[in-house]
Amino acid sequence: MPTSTLTTLQQMPIFGGISDEALQFLMDRTTTIHVAAGENFFYEDDLADALYVLEEGKVSITKCWESKDCLIRYLSKGDCFGEMALIDLCPRSATVCAVEDCCAIELPMAALHELYEMDPTQFAMIQMNLARELSRRLREVNDRLFQMQV
């Protein structure tokens, strides 16, 4: 993997502080996927086996309520999605749809397990990065709920 790609990935929140070796190990086990605008990465309630890091494009995150898709948020380059299901081992909590043509890194759950076996410290760093990202998103939702109640 070129040094510039490694540098770019390490600037993404999920990979912050990850060694070049561990990142290369993971990237050797990833797939780059392209999803056209209007197509879905996955649907709410799908089984989960990977998380995604958006390299290009924009996606919408929606949940279905009373047979209607309700927008939760948009994500763009550098954002990850699909991580919740890998942490709690439950089905997908929302649908992710490409708003623009997208290019994303698909990181399988199996690759993270292999990293754990090879380098538990780097695995723990990724888990902490995921927890920080989830915490940021939870704070944002809490703020929105609070503002709606006031």
What is the N-to-C succession of helices and strands? HHEEEEEEHEEHH
Rg measurement, Å? 16 Å
SSE-based structural type: alpha+beta
Largest sheet composition: 4 strands, antiparallel
User: How many DSSP H or I helices?
Assistant: 5
Low-confidence runs? none
Describe the strand arrangement of the main beta sheet, using strand numbers.
1-8-3-6
How many strand segments? 8
The 3D shape can be described as globular
Mean pLDDT: 90
Helix percentage: 40-55%
Report the span from N to C terminus. Answer: 50 Å
Strand content: 25-35%
Fold and architecture overview:
The chain is of the alpha+beta class. It is 41% helix and 30% strand. It contains 5 helices and 8 strands. The longest helix has 30 residues.
Task: Describe what is shown at a glance.
By secondary structure, this protein is an alpha+beta fold.
For this entry, give a set of tags.
single chain; 150 residues; alpha+beta; four-stranded antiparallel sheet; 5 helices; 41% helix; globular
How are the secondary structure elements laid out?
Elements: H1 3-10, H2 20-27, E1 31-35, E2 40-42, E3 50-56, E4 58-65, E5 68-76, E6 80-81, H3 83-88, E7 95-98, E8 102-108, H4 109-118, H5 120-149
